[in-house]
Amino acid sequence: MNKYSPSKLIDLKSYLNQKNYKKIFILVGNKSFKKLEIKNQIEKYLLDKTIYYYEKKQPYPEYNELIKITKKLDEYNPDLIIAIGGGSVIDYAKIANILKLDENLKSKIRLNKIKFNKKYNLLAIPTTAGSGAEVTANAVIYIDKIKYSLENENIKPDYFFLIPELINIGTKKIKASAGFDAISQSIESLISTKSNSESVFFAKKSLIISVNNYLDYINKPNLDNAFKMSVAANLSGNAISISKTTAPHAVSYPFTSLFDVSHGHAVALNLTKFLKFNYKNIAHSVCDFSLLDRFNLIFEITKTKNINELSALLNSLAKKTQMELSFNNLGINIESDLEKILNGVNDMRLKNNPIQITKKDLPKIILN
Known about the structure:
The protein is 52% helix and 11% strand.
């Protein structure tokens, strides 16, 4: 498969036969498994294979379900794992594929002391165009509603398929959130302290594609714009695999775990606030590149002239896809809930922000 050519499910048959995989563990999302009729669609290509299906239940990757998946996976001992779903499904598969279960596992994840030994081959087939989880070297897991990130090259799937027919069937709400995540990832990657020429290449290409296809993909979906958005997501995944994300992502996770706001939507709640903060304080950049030049590149790609126009554009994209940006309208009392939110913020991602920032700075930015 050409890396950025659309695939079809029939390609799965030739891939499996070429690799001589016989025993397959298929991890799927509960909703997408039923809505996409995945079992009916793929079983005709798996007639000579032994298959075990696991349907994930939790809306985001959660420790207790991860343990169940890992136990089933190791009991089954497959030749291949196929993860078919959104970022949560793929993250589950990525982490379960490197875990060795023991009584101190929870503590090891919290302290980032996991040994990353890949156990099985892993094929990822995303059903959303958002996180680019099929190519990232990190995966997310929540323990007691606190988000932890595991990062290692061994986490990456071995192969992926981008199949527009699967990506195109998601609800408008799912598409809007996932697509905005891709946009945010590429923007954050461009200004991350860890960005380099390679990540800029991926992030720039991703942002160009997504800003030109995002609204049509949601409002007038077809196989062409679905594939283009899946490529944009994939490119953004390649970008953040190098540069990592910044403050907007760091702050987004508690909004998901505490208030069930989907990931991309959660990022949208504060993205423009942090972009304005970074631009206003550009003279205090800790980057080894010109932060002003990176912002000017973002303005050029988005056809905006300044930070206010960029913020207006991004908020407009969110609103046109019916993503609510008001905390009150989402049932979030931001002032009384702020301490809980801050407790769930990922400090590691804050360190990648182009302007030095700590949790003490967050209330002023979030409440702005």
